[in-house]
Design goal:
The protein has about 400 residues and is an alpha/beta fold. The chain folds into two domains: about 270 residues, Aminopeptidase; about 110 residues, Alpha-Beta Plaits. About 30% of the residues lie in helices and about 25% in strands. The termini are close together.
C-alpha cells in the first residue's frame, strides 16, 4: 500500500472500532490483572481469566502444555481447519507474567494485592490489548469482514531467561504464522502515540556467573597464594575492556557486573571468589559470538593471576530486530487510526525482550506503546514499583492491532 493510499482504510470497519463499553470492560480487566500479578510459569489465574473471556466470545483458546499461557485462532470456521495452511496467519503476541518487586503506588485502588509482586513492566496492558483486539476481530470475523486468520499468543514467563517464547514456539505458537506483531509499554512516549524503528529495537541480554579458585593463605605471604581478591578485581575491570575491543564497537557488546564476593577476614587470602553480571549486545551477529569472546577474556585474566576459573554463561535473548515490512505495517496501521503525528522514532534499547525468539523464525515487529499521560513531565521507567500506565493506551493498542490485521496483505 502506498503512502498516498494509506489513509484509505475500510471505512465501515476501522472507525469506532472500540466502543466505550468495551473500553470500560478492558480497563476493568487490566486492573484485575494488575491487582493479581503472577510470576513467570505461575500465571494460572491470569490464564484462566483470559480463557474465560475468549470462550464467552465464542472462541476456542488452547492452554499451552506448561499449564500457563494460551493460543487462540480467529477467522477459521469450525470444520475448515484445513484452511489454516492456505494463507499464513498474522499473530499478535502478549506476555502475561509480572515481576518479583513490591507495588509502591500510593492511593491506587488497583495496586497489587500480592506482596512483592507487581505488573511493573506493563504486561497487564499488553495482555489486555491483545485480548481486546481478539474480541474485536472475532466480531469482524463473524460478520465476514476479516480476510485472514489471526492467532492470539498469550505467552508466559517473558521475564524468565531464556524466556517463555521458546516454550510457546515449541507448542505451536508459530505454526502457519507468516508474521507476528507485539507492543511494549514505554513511559517515555505519550499515550495516543507509538515509538517505532526498523531494525534492532532492543538488545541481547545474557547472564554471566564466574567462580575463581586457588590456594589461599596469610596476607603476610601473598606470594605463596593465588591472590583471588586481586584476580577478581582484575576480571571485573579488565574483562569488559577486553571484550569491547574484540568486536566492532558499533555492536555495543558490554559486560557489566552486578555482584562480586570474596573473603571473610582482612588478613586471610581467600580460596574462592565469585562475580556475576550481564552481557548485553546491540548486534545480532556479535551476540552469537559473545560466549566465545567472553570465555576467552575471562580465561586470559584468570590465568595471568594463577586462578582457576569456572564460567557459567547463561544464554538469554537475542536482540529484537524489526522486519522492515512489519514495522511499516505497524506505522501504516497507526497512521490509519490516529494520523501521521501518532508515530515517532524510537532508539534501540539496552533492555532484553524474548519476543526476539519469534523473530528468529518469522518476520515481525514490536512497537513501543505510549503510556505516559500527556503533559506529565515526571521521569518514569519500567521495572519500578510505582510504574503505572495511562489506560487510554489500551484503546490505542487495540486499534493498532485491529488495523494491522485488516491492512496486512502478506
Amino acid at each position: 500500500m502506498s503512502r498516498e493510499s494509506e489513509a484509505q482504510v475500510p471505512g465501515d470497519v476501522l472507525p469506532g472500532v472500540l466502543s466505550e463499553s468495551l473500553h470500560a470492560e478492558l480497563v476493568a480487566f487490566r486492573r484485575d490483572l494488575h491487582m493479581h500479578p503472577e510470576l513467570g510459569n505461575q500465571e494460572f489465574r491470569t490464564t484462566a481469566a483470559i480463557k474465560e473471556r475468549l470462550e464467552q466470545a465464542g472462541l476456542k483458546p488452547r492452554v499451552l502444555a506448561t499449564g500457563t499461557g494460551l493460543l487462540c485462532d480467529i477467522g477459521i470456521a469450525e470444520g475448515h481447519e484445513a484452511e489454516r495452511t492456505a494463507v499464513p496467519m498474522l499473530a499478535l503476541r502478549a506476555d502475561i507474567d509480572a515481576l518479583p518487586i513490591p507495588d509502591t503506588k500510593a492511593d491506587c485502588p488497583y495496586r497489587s494485592t500480592v506482596p512483592d509482586r507487581a505488573h511493573a513492566c506493563g504486561h497487564d496492558v499488553h495482555t489486555t490489548v491483545v485480548l481486546g483486539a481478539g474480541l474485536v476481530l472475532a466480531d469482524l470475523a463473524a460478520k465476514g469482514l476479516l480476510s485472514r486468520a489471526v492467532r492470539l499468543v498469550f505467552q508466559p514467563a517473558e521475564e524468565v531467561l531464556p524466556g517463555g517464547a521458546l516454550g510457546a514456539i515449541g507448542d505451536g505458537a508459530l505454526d502457519n504464522v507468516g508474521r507476528i506483531l507485539a507492543v511494549h509499554c514505554d513511559p517515555k512516549v505519550e499515550a495516543g502515540r507509538i515509538g517505532l524503528r526498523h531494525g534492532p529495537i532492543t538488545s541481547a541480554c545474557d547472564r554471566l556467573e564466574v567462580a575463581l579458585d586457588g590456594p589461599g593463605g596469610h596476607t603476610a605471604r601473598p606470594h605463596l597464594t593465588t591472590d583471588l581478591v586481586t584476580a577478581a578485581a582484575r576480571v571485573a575491570i579488565d574483562v569488559p575492556a577486553l571484550v569491547a575491543r574484540r568486536v566492532d564497537t558499533r555492536a555495543g557488546l558490554a559486560v557489566t557486573w552486578g555482584r562480586i564476593e570474596s573473603g571473610h577476614a582482612p588478613n586471610v587470602v581467600p580460596q574462592h571468589a565469585e562475580l556475576s553480571g550481564t552481557v548485553r549486545c546491540l548486534d545480532l551477529d556479535a551476540w552469537r559470538d559473545a560466549p566465545d569472546i567472553v570465555h576467552a577474556a575471562i580465561d586470559e585474566i584468570a590465568t595471568l593471576h594463577r586462578a582457576k576459573s569456572e564460567i557459567n554463561y547463561v544464554r538469554g535473548v537475542p536482540p529484537v530486530v524489526n522486519d522492515r515490512e512489519s514495522a511499516e505495517l505497524l506505522r501504516r496501521s497507526m497512521v490509519a487510526r490516529r494520523g501521521m503525528d501518532s508515530v515517532e522514532s524510537t532508539e534501540q534499547s539496552l533492555g532484553g525482550e524474548d519476543f526476539s525468539w519469534y523473530l528468529e523464525n518469522v518476520p515481525g515487529a514490536m512497537a513501543r506503546l505510549g503510556v505516559r499521560t500527556p503533559g506529565d513531565r515526571m521521569v518514569r521507567d519500567l521495572h519500578q514499583g510505582d510504574f503505572d500506565a495511562d489506560e487510554h493506551a489500551i484503546t490505542v493498542g487495540v486499534e493498532l492491532f485491529t488495523a494491522a490485521a485488516l491492512l496486512d496483505d502478506m
